[in-house]
Structures are given as C-alpha cells and as structure tokens.
Amino acid sequence: MSAKIIDGRHISEQLIEEMAQEVKERMAQGYKQPGLAVVLVGDDPASAIYVRNKIRSAEKAGMLSIVKRLDESCSQQALDDVVSELNERDDVHGILVQLPLPKHLSEERIINLIKPSKDVDGFHPMNAGLLSLGQATLIPCTPLGCLELLKREMGDISGKHAVVIGRSNIVGKPMARLLLLANCTVTVVHSKSVDPAKLCQQADILVAAVGVPELVTRDWVKSGAVVIDVGINAIEQEGKRKLVGDVNFNDVVDKCQAITPVPGGVGPMTIACLIKNTLIAATLSDN
Ligand code: NAD
Which residues make up the binding site for NADP(+) (predicted)? Predict the structure, then answer.
C-alpha cells in the first residue's frame, strides 16, 4: 500500500486565501480589520520563528498584526500589563502569548488573564470548559487543524476508533474532546499507559502528540490507518540538525492509508487555525 501524504502546507495556504476573502468582505461591510496581537518574551529562536510565521499568515489574510516583544528578564507585572492593555484595545480581536515562557513567569496566570473572547489559542479555562461541553467557539489551534485534516481525508469520521497519544492541555486533551464530539470512539494513551503499541494497533485514526522522536513504529500502526503526527522534535543525524515527528515516517508510510509529514503537515494547519480563530473572535466582537 502506498500512503497518501497529507499536504498540510497546501491546505493551510488554501484556508488562508479563503479567510483573506472573508476579511475583505467583512471590511467592505464596514467592520474593523480583524487584529491579532502576539506577545513574545525573550529570544528563543524556535519561538521567534513561530511568531514570525503567525504574523506573516495574519498579514496574508489581510489582518492587522501587532507584535509585543518583552525582554527575557521581564517581570510578571510587565507581562500582565501588556496583556491587560491588549485586552482593552478594540482593534485587537485575538491575543496569543507565545509559549513556553521563561521559567520565572507563570503561564497559568497569563492564560487566565487573557479575555476569553480574545483567547485565540483556546487555552483559557473557560474555553477549555466550553469545549468539554461541546459549546466552544475558540478551540485550540493544533487539534482543530488535525480535525480539519482528518475530515478532508476521511469525510465522516463518526464511529471510527481514534487513539490519541498524549494528554497535554494544549494538544492531547482537546484533540480527544474534538474526536469525541465528532462521534469517534476515543482512547487516550499516555506515559503511564500499559502496552501503548497494542492500544495504538486498534486505531483507525492515530494522533501522536508526545514529543518523543519517532516513538511510533510499524508495529504500533493498524494497516490502513490514518496517522496524524503532531510532534516536532529537533534531532542530530549524521552531524546535521533535522526535524522529525513522533512517528517514524519511513517505517510506517507503506502501512497506512494517509499520513502527515513533519515538517509540512500539522504545523502549518496550526497557524491557519489561529487565523481562523482570530476571524471568529472578530466576528463575535461585532466591531
Ligand atoms: P507535552 O510534553 O505537554 O505532553 C506530552 C504527552 O505525551 C504527555 O501527556 C505524556 O503523558 C505523553 N507521553 C510522554 N511520553 C510518552 C510515551 N512514551 N508513551 C505515551 N505517551 C507519552 O507535549 P505537547 O505540548 O502536547 O506536545 C507534543 C508534541 O507536539 C511535541 O513534539 C511538540 O513540539 C509538538 N507540538 C506541535 C505543534 C504543531 O503545531 N505541530 C503544536 C504543539 C505541540
């Protein structure tokens, strides 16, 4: 079997073009330009790249983009003040604080401080709770992007057995909730699970969000499964730095129906869903 390689980059570009059209139409009706503010603390190179890509995509969609940079050593109060100011601005519809933060700053505090209606990452407890109840408007971007890929690939996923590896608040748990809302039978595998390979072998849909390079090998994958690899892991191979997923791509590729590559699979979809959430937040703000 030769798996279909799911081109997340191409799909995300299509989505951003569609949203650019919607932004134009909204503005033609007299609404404000949707605005996304990204807060970056410190100079972690990976975070800087993520922020640059998010801003670039917001601009491609015709949105206003604002970057607030703070020094690595900034105080919690200084960060709180920046977020509080953005909460009050009516040209800012979405706020994202790039994680991880330096160790002396509280991620929990800052997530709680962002106005739920501007929380385009969907991490605020209120938005997480609404997702659990099936009433969410702002859903975490990475799981939302994974679901979009699954629906495009498989159509109706109702009744499928989905196994999610990982139970983080930002990927694993919201992914499991979304799959449940789409009427899948959902198993969550985590670091304390017994015999994870055996659990994963039952999956029609396998989503890996672990952070362990190439953990998922051929014997974990059911023949004909759709595999979504969320992992982004930098490794050294033959003296070169390389990005790999949580799935050993070459080992499983001829066993599955479809698979996302790393890079170029889930990553770009995360950004497209951030833009989508900003548009939703702008629409709901009604200004
Ligand atoms: P995390 O460290 O918060 O959570 C990892 C989860 O994996 C935990 O719940 C843990 O129980 C589970 N786990 C760890 N070892 C395991 C094992 N051996 N077997 C089974 N489960 C195990 O990580 P996260 O923030 O959820 O991110 C996961 C991966 O996804 C990372 O590689 C991260 O870089 C990547 N990521 C990618 C995107 C994207 O846009 N593509 C977005 C967010 C995260």
Answer: 166-168, 232
The residue nearest atom 5 of ligand 1, judged by CA position, is 210
Residue 258, classed as helix, strand or coil, is: strand
Question: Is the shortest distance between the CB of 40 and ligand 1 below 6 Å?
Answer: no
Query: Which of 49, 57, 171 is the best mutation target for the ligand 1 pocket, counting ligand atoms within 8 Å of the beta carbon and taking the most?
Result: 171
Catalytic residues: 54, 98, 121
- Could you read off the pLDDT of 145-195 as tens digits, one per residue? 999 999 999 999 999 999 999 999 999 999 999 999 999 999 999 999 999
Q: Find out whether 39 and 82 touch, Cβ atoms under 8 Å.
A: yes
Q: Are the CB atoms for 277 and 122 separated by under 8 Å?
A: yes
Q: Which atom of ligand 1 is nearest to the CA of 269?
A: 40
DSSP 207-247: EE---STT-B-GGGS-TT-EEEE---EEEEETTEEEEE-SB
Task: Give 249-279 pLDDT, tens digit per residue.
Answer: 999 999 999 999 999 999 999 999 999 999 9
Q: Is the CB of 62 under 6 A from ligand 1?
A: no
- Enter the pTM of the model: 0.97
- Domain residue limits, the chain: 31-115, 141-267
Rounded to whole angstroms, the Cα distance separating 138 from 184 reads 21
CATH of 141-267, one of 3.65.10.10, 3.20.20.80, 3.40.50.12780, 3.40.50.720: 3.40.50.720
CATH fold match for the domains 31-115 and 141-267: yes
Say if residue 158 carries a ligand binding annotation: no
The CATH architecture annotation of domain 31-115 reads 3-Layer(aba) Sandwich (3.40)
Q: Is 209 in the pocket of ligand 1 (CB under 6 A)?
A: yes
Residue 201: left if φ>0, alpha if ψ -120 to 50, beta else—which one? alpha
Is the CB–ligand 1 distance for residue 197 below 6 Å?
no
Is 167 labeled as ligand-binding? Answer: yes
